[in-house]
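Batch manifest, entry 17 of 40.
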Amino acid sequence: MKTLIVLGVVGAIAQLIDGSLGMAYGVTSTTLLVAAGIAPAAASASVHFAEIGTTLASGISHHRLGNVDWRIVRILAVPGAIGAFVGATLLSSLPADVAKPVVGAILLGLGLYVLYRFLALGGRRPEFRGRVRTGFLVPLGLVGGTLDSLGGGGWGPVGTTSLLSSGRVEPRKVVGSIDTSEFVVAVGGSLGFLVGLGAAGINWGYALALLVGGVLVAPLAAWLVKHLPARVLGTAAGGLIVVTNSRTLLVWAEVPSSATTPILLALVTVWIGLVTWAVLAERRASGGDDDEVGTGGTGPAPAAAAESAPAQR
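Output type: structure tokens
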């Protein structure tokens, strides 16, 4: 019972991060299960079944707050589900660690680019023009879904990072759309695990505990996305990408923990400092903006709001 309560708390924390920054639920939950001695395939399966409920709750909350670009969801979801199904059926026979250093390096580079985009604005607000092409979204869904099942997490890191780095979608729409489409991805991955492992190979108690914790905090996470300025949200997401994938690469390189821990602590300290700077920069930029002040200085930038309006129709 104690283990289930702990997993419920972990699910809540993971969903709070995932629902507000667009990533980390699967990675956080799967890491804990594997550390507890659960086989990677069984751990990923439990997480994916839990995500069916958490992503549904998260998607509904994001939709109600206007955080979802339904065009992106429609194009991204089906390829993502197909990729997740394929990845789940392969996991029982393929070592997921083979792809980790390559994917980690790519995501680290994209995370640094995201940070650059949102920190190199000076006094200007971020603008998001145009829309993401279908030819970009379909392969993104396939790759993200496959890695999500193979690694127990990856839909958020791949999808959120790629869409943010495109510069065409404001961060709250990126997070809301990725979280909403993840429901279909979780269903696809879960079906794949049922085929590959059978019902007996899935720890339903762990899945239920993670599910309950995640569902409880999903509305709060969606509310945070609605009220965080684009610059702050983009900086927070970019920093999370850098820290997470730096750890992946350090572990892969077998760097001793005595060196890994100080490096990660230094990165986290820098990340906190950059988010603080982004908050202060946002306050300075919105100082004389009556419209922004009217929403507490937390809504999307006027240019971003105008650009995202067609996506809500």
